[in-house]
């Protein structure tokens, strides 16, 4: 099940959404979160769903792929739905089982909250599916740039993020090697009580930690020798280009929020 | 003109700790390819660290381009040196090949347009231009080291230091890296210092510094060095295949001249057979 998890994964592509600037996508998600909370009735929630599906269609990522990848999340949504159905009171009683009543309001709230949850998860997943982690880092760095004035170490933070991303596969490979080495020495990782299994992990973690420190030292030396002296006076190789389509996407979102706001005021 | 000049260089990592380098004096001339060989713990890697300015000599002086390292000039001197380290993974800073090559350029504030050109230029020099967007875990060790070379030469350094750059590679990767350096040496006037314990690599060099237990044993040409075959084996260095074979043949009373290349040895052997 975990292999199918797609939260945080990146699927390379050339769709409209893929080609957007990471900054516009990050801003889009940020404002979308507020937009979701504007919806309050059947019409506005339907619009919200339609909007989300339209975004999915734009990414050209097969809906089934997305759906299968988010299965775990659907259990969570289902759980939330049932909680609302069971415990929210108000409106007419739809039907009762013994002393247990299901109210109209509970069902409605359950549906709405589930849609809210669903659209939020879908949209944020679309962000990571269509944007490489390093682009996300670039986007975050640029968006946080004004914080530099407050002495917030934006560049260092972004560099840490990119190095962490760079080393994830390396450390995965290493973990794999250590597991094999320990298994070859008779370590048993898959059976035994929870405590025993936990203890079997320790001989994996220790070499991994020691090697990571060694890597960190090597990397620091390599960076220093290649002239790294912090963010000051550095130029950037990775360029971001804000284009018409980025502005367009944000305008569409604002227009959509306006519609939802109008519906809310009217209703 | 001397590019590196060591005069009675002494070094220990701790004040009370053992001496890692004892009175090492040598001169490395511009435009040469110098190999520094020695067994583990012979002090050859420490010497490299001093040349990069990561440490300063405890006693004596080590002049790079005629200057001793000081706090003020360390960044200027380093700008003229490119270094490739041992572990291909631990020196790959960028998330893709081109980002990694650009890292040293970014650090020096090179403008974007110039960076693009330089990255392409150096990647072409190491024949890695078709891997622009490849991520490090999809590359072999040899490819990663070639990217590291590209990163090191992106600033057109006068001196390229290879600190055991091939010791973690498979034979194919090693050959590719050495071929890249050889081509680089032919097309530019860069000085190369390769630190290694592989005596076959030494054959490519103009001069060799043999280190043992923190002392400089001798500085000479590769051909001359291999005349001291016994001595080299005593200090724990593996002789190249051709020399080992010649030594073994000698024991069987088949005398061949001690040649360094396989072709020459083969030639000797078959003529020997026909002359019988």
Automatic annotation (TrEMBL), chain A:
Keyword rRNA processing in record: no
GO molecular function: transmembrane transporter activity
GO cellular component: plasma membrane
Record keywords: Cell membrane, Membrane, Transmembrane, Transmembrane helix, Transport
Residue ranges of the TM segments: 26-59, 65-88, 109-129, 248-265
Membrane topology designation: Multi-pass membrane protein
Subcellular location per the Swiss-Prot or TrEMBL entry: Cell membrane
Subunit structure comment from the entry: Forms a stable energy-coupling factor (ECF) transporter complex composed of 2 membrane-embedded substrate-binding proteins (S component), 2 ATP-binding proteins (A component) and 2 transmembrane proteins (T component).
PANTHER family documented for this protein: PROTEIN ABCI12, CHLOROPLASTIC
Function, in words: Transmembrane (T) component of an energy-coupling factor (ECF) ABC-transporter complex. Unlike classic ABC transporters this ECF transporter provides the energy necessary to transport a number of different substrates.
Family classification: Belongs to the energy-coupling factor EcfT family.
Name under which the protein is recorded: Energy-coupling factor transporter transmembrane protein EcfT
Organism name: Savagea serpentis
Lineage: Bacteria, Bacillati, Bacillota, Bacilli, Bacillales
Gene name tied to this protein: ecfT
Automatic annotation (TrEMBL), chain B:
Official protein name in the record: Energy-coupling factor ABC transporter ATP-binding protein
GO molecular function, one term: cobalt ion transmembrane transporter activity
Record-level GO cellular component terms: ATP-binding cassette (ABC) transporter complex
CDD domains tied to this protein: ABC_cobalt_CbiO_domain1
Family the entry assigns: Belongs to the ABC transporter superfamily.
PANTHER family according to UniProt: ENERGY-COUPLING FACTOR TRANSPORTER ATP-BINDING PROTEIN ECFA1, HEAVY METAL TRANSPORTER
Main subcellular location of this protein, as a coarse class: membrane
């Amino acid at each position: 099940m975990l292999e199918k998890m797609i939260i945080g994964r990146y699927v390379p592509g050339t769709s409209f959404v893929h080609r957007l600037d990471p900054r516009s996508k990050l801003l889009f998600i940020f404002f979308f979160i507020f937009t979701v909370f504007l919806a309050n009735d059947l019409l506005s929630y339907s619009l919200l769903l339609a909007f989300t599906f339209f975004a999915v269609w734009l990414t050209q990522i097969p809906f089934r792929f997305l759906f299968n990848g988010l299965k775990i999340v659907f259990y969570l949504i289902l759980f939330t739905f049932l909680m609302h159905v069971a415990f929210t009171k108000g409106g007419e009683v739809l039907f009762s089982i013994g002393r247990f009543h299901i109210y109209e309001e509970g069902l409605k709230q359950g549906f709405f909250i589930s849609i809210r949850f669903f659209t939020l998860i879908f949209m944020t997943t679309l962000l990571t599916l269509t944007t490489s982690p390093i682009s996300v880092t670039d986007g975050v760095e640029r968006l946080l740039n004004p914080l530099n004035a407050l002495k917030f170490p934006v560049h260092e933070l972004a560099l840490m993020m990119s190095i962490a991303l760079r080393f994830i596969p390396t450390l995965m490979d290493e973990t794999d090697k250590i597991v094999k080495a320990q298994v070859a020495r008779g370590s048993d990782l898959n059976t035994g009580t929870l405590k025993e299994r936990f203890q079997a992990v320790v001989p994996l973690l220790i070499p991994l930690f020691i090697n990571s420190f060694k890597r960190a030292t090597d990397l620091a030396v390599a960076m220093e020798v290649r002239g790294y002296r912090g963010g000051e006076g550095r130029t950037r190789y990775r360029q971001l280009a804000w284009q018409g389509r980025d502005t367009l996407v944000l305008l569409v979102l604002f227009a959509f929020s306006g519609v939802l706001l109008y519906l809310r005021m009217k209703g | 003109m001397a590019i590196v000049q060591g005069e009675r260089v002494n070094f220990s990592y701790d004040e009370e700790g053992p001496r890692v380098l004892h009175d090492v004096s040598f001169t490395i001339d511009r435009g040469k390819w110098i190999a520094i060989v020695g067994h583990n713990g012979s002090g050859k890697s420490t010497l490299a660290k001093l040349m990069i300015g990561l440490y300063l000599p405890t006693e004596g002086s080590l002049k790079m381009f005629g200057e001793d390292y000081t706090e003020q000039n360390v960044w200027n001197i380093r700008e003229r040196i490119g270094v490739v380290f041992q572990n291909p993974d631990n020196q790959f800073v960028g998330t893709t090949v081109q980002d990694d090559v650009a890292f040293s350029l970014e650090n020096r504030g090179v403008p974007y347009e110039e960076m693009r050109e330089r990255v392409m230029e150096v990647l072409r020099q190491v024949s890695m231009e078709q891997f622009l967007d490849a991520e490090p875990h999809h590359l072999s060790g040899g490819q990663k080291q070639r990217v590291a070379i590209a990163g090191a030469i992106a600033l057109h350094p006068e001196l390229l230091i290879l600190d055991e750059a091939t010791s973690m590679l498979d034979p194919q990767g090693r050959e590719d890296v050495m071929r890249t350096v050889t081509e680089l040496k032919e097309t530019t006037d860069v000085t190369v210092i390769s630190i290694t314990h592989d005596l076959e690599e030494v054959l490519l060099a103009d001069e060799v510094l043999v280190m043992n237990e923190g002392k400089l044993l001798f500085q000479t040409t590769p051909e001359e060095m291999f005349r001291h075959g016994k001595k080299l084996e005593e200090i724990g260095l593996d002789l190249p295949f051709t020399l080992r074979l010649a030594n073994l043949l000698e024991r069987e009373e088949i005398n061949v001249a001690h040649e360094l290349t396989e072709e020459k040895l083969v030639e000797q052997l078959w003529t020997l057979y026909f002359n019988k």
